[in-house]
Amino acid sequence: MLPAWLVLGAGFGYLCLLFEIAYWGDKRADAGRSVVASPYVYALSIAVYCTAWTFYGSVGRAATSGVDFLPIYLGPTLVAVLWWPVMRKILRISKSNRITSIADFVASRYGKSQLLGGLVTVIAVVVITPYIALQLKAVSASYHVLSESSYAGAGVAGDDAASSILGDTALYVAALMATFAILYGTRHIDATERHDGMVTAIAFESVVKLIAFLAVGLFVTYSMFDGLGDIFSRVAARPDIAPLLTSIGTSGDSGWITLMILSMAAILFLPRQFQVLVVENVDERHLGKAVWLFPLYLLLINVFVLPLAFAGLLSFEPGSVDPDTFVLTLPMLADSPVITLLAFIGGLSAATGMVIVETIALSTMICNDLVMPILLRMPWLRLTQRGDLTRLLIAIRRGSIVLILFLGYLYFRLIGGSYALVTIGLLSFAAVAQFAPAIIGGIYWRGGTRAGALAGLSLGFAIWIYTLLLPSFARSGWLSEAFLTDGLFGIALLNPYALFGLTGFDPLAHALFWSLIGNAGVYVAVSLTTRQSPTERIQATRFVEAFQQPAARDRRGLWRGQASYRDLHALVARFIGRERADRAFAGHAAARGLNLAKLAAADVPLLHFTERLLAGAIGAASARVMVASVVKGENLGLEEVMAILDEASQVIEYSRQLEQKSAELETASAELRAVNARLKELDRLKDDFIATVTHELRTPLTSIRSFSEILHDNPDIPAEQRREFLGIITKESGRLTRLINQVLDLAKIDAGRFDWQIGPVDLRGVVADAAAAVGGLFSDKSVTLAAGLPDDLPQVRADRDQLMQVFINLLSNAVKFCRSGTGRVAVTVRRLGAALEIRVVDNGPGIAAQDLDTIFEKFRQVGDALTNKPAGSGLGLPISRRIIEHFGGRIWAESRPGHGAVFIFTIPIAAQAQTLEAAK
Amino acid sequence: MRESRTGERLIAIFLFGCLAIDPPLMAIFRTEILIAGVPVLFLYLFAVWAVLIGLLALIIERESRSERERNVPDPAASDE
Question: How far is Cα A847 from Cα A167, in angstroms, rounded to an integer?
Answer without folding.
Answer: 130
